[in-house]
Predict the 3D structure of the following.
Amino acid sequence: MSPVRKGIVPPGQAKDDVTAISPVPLHTQIREILRRRILDGSYPPHSQMPSESQMMAAFGVSRITIRQALGDLQKEGLIFKVMGKGSFVAKPKAFQSLSKLQGFGEAMAPSGYETYSLLLSAREVEASQLVAQRLELRPGDAVFEIQRLRYLNREPISVDVSYFSMALGQRLVQEDLAARDIFVILENDLGHNLTHADVQIEAISADESLARHLGIAEASPLLRIERLTFADERPIDFEFLYYRGDAFQYRLRIDRS
């Protein structure tokens, strides 16, 4: 029977097993163990990873297996290498694919990220010309604005400003917006069939308010996403999403036919 190898275990953390009898390659098993420890903070940002020799001894594998695992982590942007010093933990930059319409929590959960939201405000406002145009209303009509500060692994990652019809907004604010995505509430609780969204992305600089909420310096780079989501063919949710440029990215696969 093939041996089970125990990895390097940070203080206070349960051990992870690596086994040669698994159909998952050894370097993949090791990569996932290290990846999990980076994401849960066991290996903090900018800390030095165990050396290749330490990991070889701990996992009972060859140097090439360790280098394959570390190479995968480097491609993900989770670690960086310093010549002559070894590998260090990068500040993880989360990403969301644009190929699928998902809420923030939905997109982050499969990667093991912890997410929650702080409700900044929920109020009736007059629709600006742009908001009215997107939601097919008249400028000055009453709409419901919901502002949330989104957290990723307990760090502020974005400010979301969303606009809805008055009736829908007043219904949404009764739900647990701290723990649940609005998309999930719209579909599962309110019965709306979300079908597609129009998205625009641009780079901007953080103003004083956004910088304060996100814990960054004023004029720091942000991704500003304008998203109009439809239920069937009706616009239902128009929002501005302001993501920290140093901590988040969108990805899109483009096929050449």
